[in-house]
Amino acid sequence: MSIAYAPLADAEGADDDLLVLVSDGDPDAFAVFYDHMAPRVFGIVKRVLVDPAQSEEVTQDVFLEAWQHASRFDPAKGTATSWLFTMAHRRAIDRVRASQSSRDRDLAVGVRDFEEARDDVAETIQTTVEHDRITRALRTLTAKQQQALELTYFQGLTHKEAAHLAGVPTGTMKSRIREALITLRIRVGVPDAS
Hints:
Structural class: mainly alpha
Number of strands: 0
CATH class of the largest domain: Mainly Alpha
Shape: globular
Radius of gyration: 18 Å
Number of domains: 2
Strand content: under 5%
Low-confidence stretches: 1-10, 112-118
CATH superfamily of the largest domain: RNA polymerase sigma factor, region 2, helix turn helix motif
Distance between the termini: 38 Å
Helix content: over 70%
Order of helices and strands: HHHHHHHHH
Number of helices: 9
CATH architecture of the largest domain: Orthogonal Bundle
């Protein structure tokens, strides 16, 4: 298995263009979009679900929805990446909710028979703003730090697997991840939890 590492900065516009072509029913554009985005979507879903089999199933569902509803994507409102990642995260959360009993969910949330209405417009704007802030912060990382986060967070690899692919010791990979996360926390303005 070989994973090609592409810097974060050069694919954003291409993904938007591909998704517009997908919305026109272009299967070749969808194949390229899928090949580029599937590992990252799988990584996001796996972070939520943990189970690889369920993560693969949800990832397939996300891309089926992307194919069927690509026309809902509006490049003026956000990027293809944020649109797809939001969809993936929501699908993963929906799967977690579906697999929990309603009783456990009620106890965990502390509310019975209450569904909070959400303002999709505000949520979309907030997601876009947060995505842009994080993307800018990610671009300030070194190439090695970007690679470490790409392999572990977006592609769902373990530290050991990521280290092997990068050709470095596991400890070095862990250090790169830690330094990258500290830098991101500072640049994005998230207070230290400790």
